[in-house]
Amino acid sequence: MPKIGPIKWRDLIRRLRSFGFDGPYSGGKHLYMICGDRVVTIPNPHRQEIGVDLLIRILKQANISRKEWEMGGVCN
Predict the structure, then answer these.
(1) How far is CA 50 from CA 36, 75, 76, in A?
(2) Which residues, in sequence order, are CB contacts of 23 under 8 Å at separation 6+?
(3) In the chain, what are the domains?
(4) Can you give the pTM of this predicted structure?
(5) From the centroid of its chain, how far is CA 62?
(6) How does pLDDT run across 39-55, given as a tens digit for each residue?
(7) Which of 3-7, 13-17, 32-36, 57-61 has the lowest mean pLDDT?
(8) In degrees rounded to 5, what are phi and psi of residue 49?
């Protein structure tokens, strides 16, 4: 699986779905995804890749560790 690094928006959505997240759903200024009681705010689609800093913040919000991200997984 890919290591932590810049990622395209579609790939981020695909990977979060592999962890059991549903969505993205529209709400307010940004989209969000849901897995159980966890709600993760997703940046709006744009042409550039999502940087490492933003990806790490998204993973913290999703309660996904770097190791889990690299190995893949499912929502607990």
Answers:
(1) 25, 22, 25
(2) 31, 32, 33, 34, 42
(3) 9-71 (3.30.920.30)
(4) 0.86
(5) 7
(6) 999 998 877 899 999 99
(7) 3-7
(8) -75, 155
Cis status, amide bond into 24, omega within 30 of 0: yes
Report which DSSP code applies to 21. Answer: -
User: What is the distance between the alpha carbons of residues 42 and 29, in angstroms, rounded to a whole number?
Assistant: 10
Q: What strand order describes the sheet that includes 38-42?
A: 22-27, 30-35, 38-42
Tokens for 43, please give them.
């940046």
Structure tokens at 28: 């307010």
Q: Which pLDDT value is given to residue 5?
A: 84
Residue 71 banded pLDDT, cuts 50, 70, 90? confident
